[in-house]
Amino acid sequence: MAGITVSPTPLLKDELDIVIPTIRNLDFLEMWRPFFQPYHLIIVQDGDPSKVIKVPEGFDYELHNRNDINRILGPKASCISFKDSACRCFGYMVSKKKYIYTIDDDCFVAKNPSGKDINALEQHIKNLLTPSTPFFFNTLYDPYREGADFVRGYPFSLREGAPTAVSHGLWLNIPDYDAPTQLVKPLERNTRYVDAVLTIPKGTLFPMCGMNLAFNRELIGPAMYFGLMGDGQPIGRYDDMWAGWCMKVICDHLGFGVKTGLPYIWHSKASNPFVNLKKEYKGIYWQEELIPFFQSVTLPKDCTTVQKCYVEISKQVKAKLGKVDEYFNKLADAMVTWIEAWDEQNPSEGVVPNVTAK
Do residues 321 and 293 make contact, with C-beta atoms less than 8 angstroms apart? Predict the structure, then answer.
């Protein structure tokens, strides 16, 4: 449950990396020190690689700037966005751990209604280590939480659940709104703490926010590509959305679950709505075609790995979205480059896990 004090031995200390994209000094880590210090951090520095990013003392970290990305990936570095937090997915690729937690540098420790600091990472780990229920909705939400169970009428054949691939956390204070909503409601703050974790049902898409997000890298890692955004691209702020739509279609196909709800973090800073509108406006227009596209994607039975599924989606993006805008042909090519780069960086993972499509 949220607000639990730090365990003496942190959960998954040697199996989880924390990925942080940034353009600034990471003073925000001081507040997270009690929870993050035992873990390895992968910092992906965006923007000017000559700028020195300061990290508070005592953290175990590696830092990659654009020069490092170019050196490690060579020509395939073209698939990693520049001047956009989408660059964080480079950290997913070079990690060697089973689990990833990613957080933005304007996110701080939130408090639960009783005033205790929320250990967001611990709740994400609980979400990932317990099954999901994507095939049948449980009205008491997560049946694997303490004090809950499957309700009357829930099929016993489905009570083992499905492996959880993604844990999508939420935010108190500044909500994750698009620019038009920000402009209409500039003073709105989220003060509602809902003590619930839900599995997003099979066949249902959702807007995935990358601000407070954890996932099982071994199960779904190659699908967590945050696309081509930012510098030189016609769109921004849809990086996590794109990853979420691709990931959810693949999870549905392979029989994995996605949870949303707890844990909360405190999102401290509202980004400029006018700057956001400039980044988002094509996405706001395009998503009316993107959502029906993802709702209609079907993956063949022989797509038994995440990589195969992802390459198949890229083909369908090119075939069906290329006519919406030339950008989607470029994005589809980048999706294939991403998978090639992923397999080069993770050679032993090429065919794992091999599962039966649902």
Answer: yes
pLDDT classification of 348: cutoffs 50, 70, 90: confident
The Cα 357–Cα 300 span in angstroms is 9
Q: What is the pLDDT of residue 105?
A: 97
Q: Is the peptide bond before 353 cis (omega within 30 degrees of 0)?
A: yes
d(CA 108, CA 171): 10
- Distance in angstroms (rounded) separating the CA atoms of residues 281 and 300: 34
Token reading at 164? 């959880």
- What spatial distance separates the first Cα and last Cα of the chain, rounded to whole Å? 31
Give residues with Cβ within 8 angstroms of 201, minimum separation 6: 134, 135, 137
246 CB neighbour count, 10 Å cutoff: 26
Place of tokens 């959702």: 206
Q: Can you list the positions of beta strands (E) in the chain?
A: 16-22, 40-45, 60-64, 99-103, 107-108, 164-173, 197-199, 212-216, 257-267
Cα 164–Cα 167–Cα 171 angle in degrees, nearest 5:
165
pLDDT digits 0-9 by tens, 197-225: 999 999 999 999 999 999 999 999 999 99
Q: How far is CA 356 from the centre of its chain?
A: 24
Alpha-carbon distances, residue 53 vs 40, 46, 67, 72 (angstroms): 17, 10, 14, 20
Q: Which residue has the tokens 């993972």?
A: 349
pTM of the model: 0.95
Phi, psi of 268 (to 5 degrees): -90, -25
Q: For 191, left (φ over 0), alpha (ψ -120 to 50), or beta?
A: alpha
